[in-house]
Amino acid sequence: MKLKFVNESREDKVFDVVVTTLFIILMLLVLYPLYFIVIASVSNPDLVSSGEVLFIPKGINFDAYKYILKDQRIWQGYYNTILYTFFGTIFALFLTIPSGYALSRPDLKGKKYIMGYMIFTMYFGGGLIPTYLVIKSLGLIDTPYVLMVLGSFSVFNLIITRTYFEATIPLELQEAAEIDGCSIPRFFLSIVLPLSKSIVAIMLLYYAVGHWNSFFNGMMYVNTQSLYPLQVILRDILISGQNVQADTTDIEYILEMERIARTIKYGVIIVSTLPVLVLYPFVQKHFVKGVMIGSVKG
After folding, report:
1. Fold assignment, 78-213+286-294
2. CB–CB of 232/15 below 8 Å?
3. Confidence at residue 91, expressed as pLDDT on a 0 to 100 scale
4. What is the pLDDT of residue 90?
């Protein structure tokens, strides 16, 4: 069988060149800041400040990382954040996946009103002070549970999950299982979940990243330093590195800290994002599939 190649017109070739060029420019605009943060965090602080570090690291040193990692609080912050992220994500999946499946079934009575109420909460909330008072009345202030519970449900994620189930799990499949004597819980656990690895993976990534990056909740609702998440501890390390004058009278130490203050900032970014960057390649294929299927209908 001979393959027939279609001759592209001049306009098509120009279009391809323009689109490819714009894509390359956009890719560079996205990747270069990330690359610069990496090379700046391991470069000589004086060269970074003077703008001589642009494409390759110069005067390689790890003073910023030494300063960050020597602080024992950072290991406690890692432990706390991993704990909050793990249990918070499990709790979030427990809420979102079954809810999304239930709302995807056309035979669920009142689902339009339920979805309408949930969508309403996306645009209107009680505000910071009422939320704080509710959390305080529940006895969650200054406990690890507050950072596991908050951020464990998202209406946006629920809509994606519901749409995924509508597009991939037909009602006829459930009806056939019921004819064979399969209950709805067993159908969900034995059939729906194995067929929904993509949406489970994407929800896991969304919620895990949200819990990992959680900063405001830790700052607002936790007062005990031993319960601080990593992001709050990194903020304290960054502030202490930039305001060292109040902590010591050693002139040489003050000058050295002023010198590496900027690279400390870049080092903090790397330390906080590295675990997420390591996790992402393992769920990348599910990420693309889950988002695309979940965006077909809404």
Report:
1. MetI-like fold (1.10.3720)
2. no
3. 93
4. 93
In the chain, domain spans: 78-213+286-294
Q: What is the full DSSP assignment across the chain?
A: -PPPPPPPPHHHHHHHHHHHHHHHHHHHHHHHHHHHHHHHHTS-HHHHHTT--SSS--S---HHHHHHHT-THHHHHHHHHHHHHHHHHHHHHHHHHHHHHHHH-TT-TTHHHHHHHHHHHHH----HHHHHHHHHHTT-TTSTHHHHHTTS--HHHHHHHHHHHHHHS-HHHHHHHHHTT--HHHHIIIIITGGGHHHHHHHHHHHHHHHHT--HHHHHH---GGG--HHHHHHHHHHHHH-GGGT---HHHHHHHHHHHHHHHHHHHHHHHHHHHHHHHHHHHHHHHHHHHHTS--
Spatial distance between the Cα atoms of 260 and 59, rounded to a whole number of angstroms = 13
pTM of the predicted structure, to 2 decimals: 0.76
**Cα–Cα distance between 295 and 156 in angstroms, integer?**
11
Q: Backbone phi, then psi, for 179, in 5-degree steps?
A: -65, -35
The size of the chain, in residues, is 298
Angle at 58 between CA 55 and CA 61, to 5 degrees: 130
Q: What is the mean pLDDT of each run of 10 residues along the chain (298 residues)?
A: 59 86 92 86 78 80 78 82 91 92 86 86 83 89 89 88 86 83 85 86 86 86 86 76 53 64 77 79 67 53
Phi-psi region of 139 (alpha: psi -120 to 50; beta: other; left: phi over 0): left
